[in-house]
Amino acid sequence: MCRSIKTLRPPYADSVTEEDIRAAALQYVRKVSGFRQPAPANAAAFDRAVEQITATTEELLRSLTVRGTRHQVRSQATRPPHEETHPE
Predict the structure, then answer these.
(1) 76, 85 Cβ separation under 8 angstroms
(2) What is the pLDDT of residue 75?
(3) Distance in angstroms (rounded) separating the CA atoms of residues 32 and 37
(4) Given 3, 30, 36, 60, which residue has the most CB atoms within 10 angstroms?
(5) pLDDT values of the chain reduced to their tens digit, one per residue, 88 residues
(6) Could you give the CA distance from residue 80 to residue 78 in angstroms, rounded to a whole number?
(7) How many CB atoms lie within 10 A of CB 26?
(8) Which run of H or of E encompasses 7?
């Protein structure tokens, strides 16, 4: 399962969306839990884990500095809301 998680930082990924980050978190939780789809009794814990791992991954990507670049890693999903993604 986790083989489908792709690297989400440059130079491996030019643009990363929140959907990309959430998909990686979902694959991780599926692998660790052993459930593709959890039973109703485990659904809340499963969903909470996906959300927490998504948030942690976004924070990790915001915090990384890639050697050989002047800027921190920035993705569409991890930009603060006030930053423009497309200059006019």
Answers:
(1) yes
(2) 54
(3) 12
(4) 30
(5) 456 778 888 778 878 899 999 999 999 999 999 999 999 999 999 999 999 999 999 999 989 888 766 555 555 555 555 554 444 4
(6) 6
(7) 19
(8) none
How many residues would you count in the chain?
Answer: 88
Q: What is the DSSP letter of 35?
A: -
Of the candidates 32, 13, 72, the one whose C-alpha atom is nearest the C-alpha of residue 21 is 13
Predicted local confidence at residue 65, as pLDDT: 86
Give the span between the Cα atoms of 6 and 18, in whole angstroms. Answer: 14
Q: Which residue has the tokens 């929140």?
A: 18
The CA distance from 64 to 8, in Å, is 11
Residue with tokens 């948030």: 55
